[in-house]
């Protein structure tokens, strides 16, 4: 079960259907940065929401605008930063963990996919310090999600560690409050 979009380009990007995206863009290039009527997502945002690396890469290669935001003022980078494991992922990892460490390998594969998705988006001219309607940057979200593999990627792009969200918290404040020591150490090292 997932999102249903009114725009075919957004739906095909969310579903990871690169072939349909190709057909849509071939027919009408305005589909590349179209906004969905319901939530304002673009195809790139939709692909990032669902973690479809091939669709993200295809859209970036064709010049999708990474600066566009949806109704929540979120860019595609916000959604890459907010990605977490689905309930199904957790169930599979938990069930397969005792069976020859299959759960561990599934977990590592999901983590590598998140890193690849983040690297793909960061390879563009994305504004890493863009704030959404809550005042959060991508760095705020990776700190909330305890994504210690993604924090260094944002820091290498000079993400501002001092941006305060609407609650007055910086990414360091969030990591400190949640007691994510490794992330706290990374953030303090850059200051």
UniProtKB/TrEMBL annotation:
Superkingdom of this protein's organism: Eukaryota
Keywords noted in UniProt: ANK repeat, Membrane, Transmembrane, Transmembrane helix
ANK repeat ranges per the UniProt record: 39-71, 134-166
Keyword field contains Metal-binding: no
Positions of transmembrane segments: 87-107
Keyword match Transmembrane: yes
Name of the molecule in the record: Ankyrin repeat domain-containing protein 22
């Amino acid at each position: 079960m997932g999102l249903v979009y009114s725009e075919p380009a957004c739906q095909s990007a969310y579903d990871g259907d690169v072939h349909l995206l190709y057909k849509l863009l071939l027919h009408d290039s305005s589909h590349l940065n179209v906004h969905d009527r319901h939530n304002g997502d673009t195809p790139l945002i939709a692909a990032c929401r669902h973690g479809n690396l091939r669709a993200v890469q295809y859209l970036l290669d064709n010049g999708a605008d990474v600066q566009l935001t949806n109704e929540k003022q979120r860019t595609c980078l916000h959604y890459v930063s907010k990605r977490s494991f689905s309930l199904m992922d957790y169930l599979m990892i938990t069930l397969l963990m005792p069976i020859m460490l299959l759960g561990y390998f599934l977990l590592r594969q999901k983590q590598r996919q998140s890193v690849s998705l983040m690297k793909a988006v960061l390879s563009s001219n994305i504004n890493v310090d863009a704030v959404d309607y809550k005042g959060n940057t991508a760095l705020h979200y990776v700190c909330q999600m305890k994504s210690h593999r993604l924090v260094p990627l944002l820091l290498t792009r000079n993400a501002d560690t001092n941006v305060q969200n609407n609650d007055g918290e910086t990414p360091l404040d969030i990591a400190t409050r949640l007691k994510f020591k490794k992330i706290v150490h990374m953030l303090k090292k850059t200051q």
